[in-house]
C-alpha cells in the first residue's frame, strides 16, 4: 500500500476568531467542526498570535462556504462575522478513516467491511467471498490502524 498516494493539499473552510473565545465557540459549534484522525480542530494563526483558525467540516458547510442559520446565530451571539475563510491544509494517509482508505484501494463496487471483534491483540473479521482476494490488504489496513 502506497501511503504517499493519499497525500494531498486541500482547502478547508474555517473561522478566524479571537483566541479568548475559542473554547466556548468550540462547544457551541460542535456539529460542524472538522473531524479527521490526527488533525486538530483549532490552529494558530501564523500572522496574529491573538487569533486562531477553527476548522470546519466541508461536508457540513454549503458549497459557497456559508454556515447554516443556527451556526450564524451562534456566531452573532459571540460578535463574530459568520463568513468563513479558506484554510490550506495537507492531508496524509494518517488523516483518513479506515473505511475511506478501503474504499480508495478496493475495486469499485466492493462492499467495505467495518465490523470486527478484538480479543487482546487478535482481531476477527468475517469477510464475504467476494472480499477474500483482498483479505491480506484488508488485514494490513485494520491491523495497522486499530491494533
Topology:
Blueprint: E1 8-18, H1 22-28, E2 42-44, E3 51-55, H2 69-77, E4 85-91, H3 98-105, E5 117-119, E6 122-124, H4 135-146
Antiparallel strand pairs: 1-3, 1-4, 2-3, 5-6
Low-confidence stretches: none
Give the overall shape: elongated
Strand content: 15-25%
On the 0 to 100 scale, the average pLDDT is 85
Could you give the order of strands across the largest sheet? 2-3-1-4
Please provide the ordered H/E string of secondary-structure elements.
EHEEHEHEEH
Largest sheet: 4 strands, antiparallel
Radius of gyration: 19 Å
Number of helices: 4
How many structural domains?
Answer: 2
Distance between the amino and carboxyl termini: 18 Å
- Helical fraction: 10-25%
- The counted number of beta strands is 6
Instruction: Decide which structural class fits the backbone.
Output: alpha+beta
How would you describe the overall organization of this protein?
It is elongated and about 55 Å long. The model has no long low-confidence stretch (mean pLDDT about 85). It folds into two domains: about 5-90, no CATH class; about 100-140, no CATH class. The longest helix is centred in the last third of the chain and has 12 residues, at about 135-145. Strands 2-3-1-4 form a four-stranded antiparallel beta sheet, with no helix packed on it. It contains four helices and six strands. The chain has helices at about 20-30, 70-75, 100-105, 135-145; strands at about 10-20, 40-45, 50-55, 85-90, 115-120, 120-125. The protein has about 150 residues and is an alpha+beta fold.
Amino acid at each position: 500500500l502506497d501511503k504517499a498516494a493519499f497525500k494531498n493539499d486541500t482547502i478547508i473552510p474555517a473561522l478566524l476568531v479571537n483566541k479568548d473565545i475559542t473554547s466556548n465557540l468550540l462547544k457551541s459549534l460542535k456539529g460542524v467542526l472538522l473531524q479527521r484522525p490526527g488533525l486538530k480542530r483549532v490552529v494558530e494563526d501564523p500572522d496574529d498570535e491573538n487569533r486562531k483558525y477553527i476548522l470546519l467540516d466541508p461536508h457540513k458547510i454549503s458549497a459557497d462556504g456559508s454556515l447554516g442559520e443556527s451556526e450564524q446565530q451562534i456566531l452573532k451571539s459571540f460578535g463574530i462575522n459568520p463568513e468563513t475563510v479558506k484554510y490550506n491544509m495537507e492531508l496524509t494517509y494518517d488523516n483518513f478513516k479506515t473505511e475511506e482508505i478501503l474504499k480508495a484501494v478496493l475495486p469499485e463496487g466492493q462492499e467495505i467491511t467495518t465490523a470486527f471483534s478484538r480479543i487482546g491483540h487478535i482481531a476477527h473479521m468475517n469477510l464475504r467471498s467476494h472480499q477474500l482476494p483482498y483479505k491480506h490488504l484488508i488485514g494490513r489496513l485494520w491491523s495497522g490502524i486499530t491494533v
